[in-house]
């Protein structure tokens, strides 16, 4: 897992080295955070790993699998 690291990420939002997201600010010219596949792949695989480690097969239409895996 890793935190967002695109050039438009809000640096140190949650403490030193802990970047976050921003909606941007048109008044100051600050751009909203750009997303990238590295961050989304990390989130996806972290969640899928928990579900699969619990012996649950991923199912596209089921939206309670993470809850079942940790519950």
Can you offer a commentary on this structure?
This is Phage tail protein. The protein is mostly helical and about 70 residues long. The chain has 2 helices and no strands. It is elongated and about 50 Å long. The two termini are about 20 Å apart.
What is the element layout, followed by pairings?
Elements: H1 37-53, H2 65-70
Protein name: Phage tail protein
Organism: Salmonella enterica subsp. enterica serovar 4,[5],12:b:-
Region (Disordered): 1-33
Relevant terms:
elongated, mainly alpha, 2 domains
Care to give the gist of this entry?
With 71 residues, the chain is mostly helical.
User: What is the radius of gyration?
Assistant: 16 Å
Task: Output the number of helix runs.
Answer: 2
SS content category: mainly alpha
Query: Ends: how far apart?
Result: 22 Å
Series of secondary-structure elements, N-terminal to C-terminal: HH
Protein name: Phage tail protein
Region (Disordered): 1-33
Organism: Salmonella enterica subsp. enterica serovar 4,[5],12:b:-
């Amino acid at each position: 897992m890793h935190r967002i690291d695109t050039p438009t990420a809000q640096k140190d939002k949650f403490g030193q080295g802990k970047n976050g997201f921003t909606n941007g600010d048109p008044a100051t010219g600050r751009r909203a955070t750009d997303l990238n596949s590295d961050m989304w792949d990390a989130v996806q695989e972290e969640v899928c790993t928990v579900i699969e480690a619990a012996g649950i097969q991923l199912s596209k239409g089921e939206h309670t699998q993470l809850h079942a895996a940790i519950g």
